[in-house]
């Protein structure tokens, strides 16, 4: 009996080694058809889709939001705080994706229980465990988006009170500054894939260069750096407006600073880079770690992050406005009389704590199918 058991074990090991050899070498035995090479869903061929998707997303969502902010404040004379809060709520609602599952749907691998309120199938338990496992990493994206959504609110308001002249007769539309973040993504993605990634593979010995969690962490750091740059630039813009002759006033009565609005481009470019690192790796992370039959949930998680980030940004604007309103309001209607730079420093400080929390979650996390 023991000899027979050993023979069975040796036979199973040989079969496993043959399967591994086929998977690695892409070949089979004599007379067998060689399987198709594995399809890699990344690389240069995927760039047109990613770039096109990001372009239409920016122009269709952030561009519309930025233009709507200008329209609400300059035409309807809505207070900037109210307009920013309204847009945060609107963007959050449009990004929120409901996850609905029908109890009658066919579930491969397990039958649905008779009473789902009293008894859950094994598959349902595994689905919940999967969501609980990625929840800490997912939650860091909510705070991350607080910095990102500022490019369609207070960056636009600051641009309205800056020198937007380009030449003698042309003024850069304030709402169009969000294009610079999109431009940074468009330029960075092919540069990373074609030039930087091959070198990273040699340095790290990994096919993907940076891991998914490392790329998310880099994105969080870059968003914090962008807020620091925003605070420095805003402090300079306000100082010039208060100490040097202005270029007139806006429709809402705020003085236009003589500082060129192009000084806001670096912070937007850094925000675009942060999205290229964090947003893309977030989506890839969800699709890798969530089971095949839950792909719709994976796609919805990123949009839920964006939605909750918008809501959190609106909540933060409201809290700061009410807290500082009795003295020198940080978010005054006239930005020259406020302290928008301190608001940016606050978001940067929150970003630092978010990065520390992310590092803790990333060190704790174990990828699916691995023990390390």
UniProtKB/TrEMBL annotation:
Residues 1-24 have a biased composition (Basic and acidic residues). The chain crosses the membrane at residues 142-160, 172-192, 212-233, 297-321, 342-365. The keyword Cytoplasm does not apply. One of its GO terms (cellular component) is membrane. Residues 1-34 are annotated as: Disordered. Its main location: membrane. It is found in: Membrane. Pfam families: PTR2. The keyword Transmembrane applies. One of its GO terms (molecular function) is transmembrane transporter activity. Keywords: Membrane, Transmembrane, Transmembrane helix. It is a multi-pass membrane protein. It comes from the Eukaryota. Belongs to the major facilitator superfamily. Proton-dependent oligopeptide transporter (POT/PTR) (TC 2.A.17) family. PANTHER family: OLIGOPEPTIDE TRANSPORTER-RELATED. This is Uncharacterized protein. It comes from Panicum virgatum.
